[in-house]
Design goal:
Radius of gyration: 24 Å
Largest sheet: 7 strands, mixed
Shape: globular
Number of strands: 31
Distance between the termini: 15 Å
Structural class: mainly beta
């Protein structure tokens, strides 16, 4: 597996400031890259130019996707076409953009080092043009990208990225993130992964394996062999570990899996059944549910000392805990009030309060990672259907994003703008698949996987 940190990011000078002789520019870029080398953890510097072209997206309000164009990047023809295709697909799947069919482009290839002919794009009602150049020098791939406001001819984004050839899909996702962030005002999400349960075989005897993929369903890699039943995988904040449950012999156990080398370790030898492990935001704790004598309560485990402490007590079923982004609170589901509802408490188990009061049963709550637009996503069973919804942590603003025969298990995108979940199709040949909805309720699309898929968990942005 390529090193996820093996990526170099740099701002690209404004085109107007480029020397007339492009060869000089390319030599200067090459010298800079050679001097800097490949470094981990570099942040993206501010873009050299800015403008105000931006799609307006308000939760609960309808909007129209922005028409954009992503022509083939110049340079290496194969890589230029591949990167442009992935960028266009990312932005289209987000639901906020409508890339125009490349067959209708007058200019089929537009590089980062040339001023576009905007008169060839304005008649197509294109609002934003994403142009770039991709080169491969001995396996070292460099991509330069510019995002243009077609109406004004202003540059919105100018950045360059370098990495190994094995990381080209990541590079394309990062380019898409740069465009998405500028045009929406939200953080990116495309440079991320999803772990899920791959399901194959007859409906009454499914083989279930842990699998990991890019957020768009590509690059699927299997993490377990299907020799035991696996459930509820969850990423650590670093995206380098996955906590999950496995049914082998006896009660289900919680394991930690190292994504890079496949090594796994048993979290704890609990004398009873364990459920729903999930990391704290700092990665130092696991919150989970343990069942004793028919009751299930929420516990927290310090991963350093492996000490476990009960956060809830009583004759009820408390499960599916999820930390708030600052780690100070936990949301969970409980039947302590006579029906399955959502509750929030302090991370030490104090100040438990109910937040869901609508009709129906609420389950699988998960707290958004975005502290500035804090929502809790959940599954709600009501009137014979399953709904995926969101509400604020105080229980206000409940909104249904989608409903159907069987929807369940929401997980948040790294930017807190989207919820991925699984939807079960009925009938003897039916099975679960992964779907995507945004917080406005206007976007709904399927994420294709090689086989049936359930229990998705979205990683943070890769570093």
């Amino acid at each position: 597996m390529p090193d996820p940190d093996d990526m170099l990011r740099r701002p690209l000078p404004a085109l107007a400031a480029l020397p007339a002789n492009r060869r000089v520019v390319l030599r200067a870029l090459g010298a800079m890259l050679a001097t800097t080398g490949i470094a981990a953890g570099l942040s993206v510097a501010p873009t050299p130019a800015s403008a105000q072209l931006r799609i307006t997206i308000t939760p609960g309000q309808p909007f129209s996707p922005m028409p954009i164009a992503v022509p083939i990047f110049s340079g290496d023809s194969q890589l230029g076409a591949e990167v442009a295709r992935i960028v266009a697909a990312d932005l289209k799947t987000s639901g906020y953009f409508a890339p125009v069919d490349p067959a209708g482009h007058i200019d089929k290839v537009v590089g980062a080092g040339e001023m576009p002919n905007f008169n060839n794009w304005r008649p197509l009602n294109i609002q934003a043009l994403i142009a770039g150049t991709v080169t491969d020098q001995g396996g070292q791939v460099t991509a330069q990208v510019r995002v243009w406001d077609v109406a004004t001819g202003q540059q919105l984004v100018g950045q360059q990225f370098a990495t190994s050839r094995d990381n080209v899909r990541r590079l394309a996702h990062i380019v898409a993130d740069a465009a998405y962030s500028q045009l929406t005002g939200f953080k990116g999400m495309f440079d991320s992964r999803v772990v899920f349960v791959d399901e194959s075989g007859p409906k009454n005897n499914r083989v279930k394996r842990l699998a990991i993929m890019d957020w768009d369903g590509q690059g699927v890699r299997y993490l377990t062999r299907g020799q035991e039943l696996v459930l509820t995988p969850r990423f650590s904040p670093s995206a380098q570990q996955i906590a999950y449950m496995a049914y082998g012999q006896g009660d289900p156990k919680v394991f930690l899996l190292n994504v890079a080398n496949g090594a796994r370790q048993l979290v704890g030898d609990f004398p009873s059944m364990t459920f729903s492990p999930r990391f704290s935001p700092d990665g130092g704790r696991l919150v989970l549910s343990l069942q004793k004598d028919g009751d299930a309560n929420v516990y927290v485990m310090d991963l350093g000392s492996r000490q476990v402490r009960a956060l809830t007590q009583g004759a009820s079923i408390d499960t599916s805990p999820s930390f708030s982004p600052d780690g100070g609170q936990i949301v969970f589901e409980s039947d302590r009030g006579g029906s399955q509802q959502l509750y929030v408490m302090g991370a030490d188990g104090s100040n438990v309060r109910r937040i869901s009061f609508g009709s129906g049963r609420y389950s699988t709550p998960v707290w958004s990672p975005d502290p500035d637009n804090s929502y809790i996503a959940f599954t709600k069973q009501e009137g014979g259907s399953f709904k995926i919804g969101v509400m604020k942590p105080d229980g206000s603003g409940e909104r249904t994003l989608t409903e159907g025969y069987h929807n369940e298990g929401p997980t948040w995108s790294p930017n807190g703008r989207y919820v991925m979940f699984f939807r079960e199709s009925g009938g003897p040949s039916g099975g679960p698949g992964l779907w995507l909805a945004d917080v406005t309720g206007n976007v709904l699309s399927q994420i294709r996987t090689p086989a049936f898929a359930s229990d998705p968990a979205w990683s943070p942005l890769l570093r």
